[in-house]
Amino acid sequence: MPELQRLRPDHAPAVLAFEHANRAFFAASIPDRGDDYFTRFPARHAALLAEQATGACHFHVLVAEGTGEVLGRFNLVDVADGSAELGFRLAEKATGRGLATKTIRQLFQLCRTTYGLTTLRARAANTNTASRSVLTRTGFVETGEDVVLNGKRGAGYARELGVGVGAGAGQA
Ligand SMILES: CC(C)(COP(=O)(O)OP(=O)(O)OC[C@H]1O[C@@H](n2cnc3c(N)ncnc32)[C@H](O)[C@@H]1OP(=O)(O)O)[C@@H](O)C(=O)NCCC(=O)NCCS
Fold first, then answer.
1. Residue 167 confidence class, pLDDT cut points 50, 70, 90
2. Of 26, 56, 68, 73, which one's alpha carbon is 20 to 30 angstroms from that of 91?
3. What pLDDT does 74 receive?
4. Are 91 and 117 in contact (CB under 8 A)?
5. Of 95, 147, 150, which is best to mutate to test ligand 1, by the most ligand atoms within 8 angstroms of its C-beta?
6. Distance CA 76, CA 96 (A)
7. Is the pLDDT of residue 163 over 60?
8. Is the Cβ–Cβ distance between 103 and 33 less than 8 Å?
9. How confident is the model at residue 150 (pLDDT cuts 50, 70, 90)?
10. pLDDT band at 142 (very low <50, low <70, confident <90, very high)
């Protein structure tokens, strides 16, 4: 089973390989990171870790068992007042088998027990059917807020996490 791990310095090569291998796949549904992202990756990775150390965000990678290959990224940003915004992306070859859904459910437990979060927010473009499907299946509800994501119309979502270790167990 792939393992969800908090982002560390030694994840850098595997994260870069993941972003390279899936660049075209991601760019089909979310904004491309741009060439600079790839050429300046080491500094960018270090900056993320420094930001994470402040508690303002929690970054995670989904790592394949045995190989150390990164299969996905699940990030919580803008952490404040028990709330954070969720962003996620999965390697193309790992899609279509419920891995994003399963990992987000796992992340909920981490949010409750480790990060002390009670609400997660998310945004998805109206055209991003896979993302919207994952958000709905994991219990996110549309907030009614209209958002524009790099020129595309989209929706805002929120998910109440409940309180306590077992809250929501067995649910989305
Ligand atoms: C969105 C993403 C994480 C989904 O990963 P995943 O592991 O395939 O997700 P799941 O298998 O848990 O669920 C995907 C759902 O979307 C559906 N889906 C997948 N691709 C689809 C597509 N191109 N069009 C319509 N539906 C699609 C699947 O059928 C599934 O729904 P179902 O089980 O009801 O049939 C992945 O496609 C991805 O990383 N995309 C690019 C980055 C991105 O869009 N991130 C989200 C930003 S808000």
1. very low
2. 56
3. 98
4. no
5. 95
6. 23
7. no
8. no
9. confident
10. very high
Is any atom of ligand 1 closer than 6 Å to the C-beta of 158? Answer: no
Pocket flag, ligand 1, residue 163 (CB < 6 Å): no
The residue nearest atom 26 of ligand 1, judged by CA position, is: 130
Instruction: Describe the strand order of the beta sheet including 3-6 as a list of residue ranges.
Output: 3-6, 58-63, 70-80, 83-90, 119-125, 152-160, 141-149
CA of 139 to the centre of ligand 1 (A): 15
Q: Residues of 113-151 as b/e, b for ≥16 C-beta within 10 angstroms? A: eebebbebbbbbbeebeebbebbeebbbeeeeeeeebee
Mean pLDDT for 108-126 is 97
Query: Which tokens sit at 157?
Result: 């979502």
**pLDDT band at residue 162, thresholds of 50, 70 and 90?**
confident
**pLDDT attached to residue 170:** 44
Antiparallel, parallel or unpaired: β 119-125 and 83-90:
parallel
pTM of the model: 0.92
CB of 99 sitting under 6 A from ligand 1: yes
